Give the backbone structure.
Amino acid sequence: MTMHVATEDTRGLRLDRFLQTELSGHSRAFLQKLIEQGRVLVNGKLSKPSHRMRLGDNVSVEIPPLRSLEAASEAIPLDVLFEDDDLIVVNKPAGLVVHPAAGNTEHTLVNALLHHCRGKLAGISGVERPGIVHRLDKGTSGCLVVAKTDAAHQSLVAQFKSRAVKKIYRAICWGKFGQPNGRIDTVIGRSKSDRKKMSARVARGRPSLTEYRVLKQFDQFALVELTLHTGRTHQIRVHIAHIGHPVVGDAVYGRSRSALHALRSTISVARPLLHAYKLSLTHPLTGKFLDFEAPIPADMEEIIGNG
């Protein structure tokens, strides 16, 4: 049983959305199922996923015991940066979905991990996300850590929640930056015009902070290093677009196809050019601070080399 209290930052969120912020290692669908099963109480009473959180609401969550998962293992090659009995860190390639979902149950990172780890992954209540404590979008490459035991899973979830994990990304972004570095400090929430998108131009949202540093400026674009201080959905893509320098290749938050055409005339851009470059965390068992680094992928190196 875990206990959670609504704060000013989470006041007004739906109960299922609130639980997503508190239990980031679990999908919204899984949390909704817990609510429907009566495993979630708000101030000691049953509630609905649509319940709007009030300041000071006390939420108790009962997470059922582990049981085996149904996702199939697949012999998909993995670029392993680190592995021991407690966790594994991989360099996820662009184009690989992290975990199975409706309509996409095969050829994911989870399927590859199930094969690689041979049953030594953490999983909760049959959710097809064994050991997954954070995620990268399909088009994003780079460092991703996965827990191999339930104890490691709990430790890593707590580290991500407390922002003890350091995440540094590199991206190729449009335009010439006026300043070599800066902070983007806004709220991020669901866009009112398109519910599939997030936006920094909302009246109410969750506080979000990204720091950036221009590593190299080119004529049309720049190589930028970005440090995440919060972990909102699409945070880097939303923030960097918010200041007028969207990630090259980002069809959701980026520029029009005609603007991208000039770059594509000489270089192939098949995804948002965003890479999880560094990941730093504390080992769940030994307490040792660990740093991981994933090399810049070939498609980004090609553009940098031809810039």
Summary: The chain has three domains: 2-61, 66-157, 168-276+301-305. The chain is about 20% helix and 30% strand. The chain has a mean pLDDT of 88.
